[in-house]
Specification:
This protein has helices spanning 7-14, 17-22, 53-69, and strands at residues 25-30, 33-39, 76-84, 93-103, 107-115, 121-130. It is of the alpha+beta class. It is globular and about 45 Å long. The protein contains three helices and six strands; from the N terminus they run ααββαββββ. A six-stranded antiparallel β-sheet has the order 1-2-4-5-6-3.
Length: 132
């Protein structure tokens, strides 16, 4: 269903104000795929002194949103879930890579792998979207 990413659609996704506030950057985008990055800073920590699950979730969700909206049709999340696998430290750059795993005319399913600098998997995220 995706023929490619138009410059207008890519600009729209890149200019996400919530991602900008958190420091999440769009590193790559293509039909059904996207990669986002976040360098963890002190303001991404929770009261335990480890990265807040919401920061990691938001990084994965940004990749999911970019991948599912890359083709030009608006896509809206139906459900998501995340599994946190490992804690990392401030200064670590996390990368979230979203890949479409299933698609119908109206829905899509995506898997997002969040990994640390060295390639260790930090979290796994899955999401489904609806395209009206």
């Amino acid at each position: 269903m995706d023929d490619g990413v138009t410059p207008e659609r890519e600009a729209l996704i890149r200019d996400d104000p919530f991602c900008a506030r958190l420091g999440i950057e769009l590193a790559a985008i293509g039909p059904g795929t996207a990669t986002t990055r976040l360098e963890l800073a002190d303001d991404h920590l929770n009261f335990h002194g480890i990265p807040h699950g919401g920061a990691i979730y938001s990084l994965a969700d940004a990749a999911f949103a970019a991948a599912s909206n890359a083709g030009g049709d608006d896509a809206f999340a139906l459900e998501t879930n995340v599994s946190y696998l490992e804690a990392v430290e401030v200064g670590t750059t996390l990368t979230a890579t979203a890949t479409r795993t299933h698609e119908t005319r109206a829905t899509g399913e995506y898997e997002v792998v969040v990994s640390a600098d060295g390639g260790d998997r930090v979290a796994t995220f899955r999401g489904r979207v609806y395209r009206p």
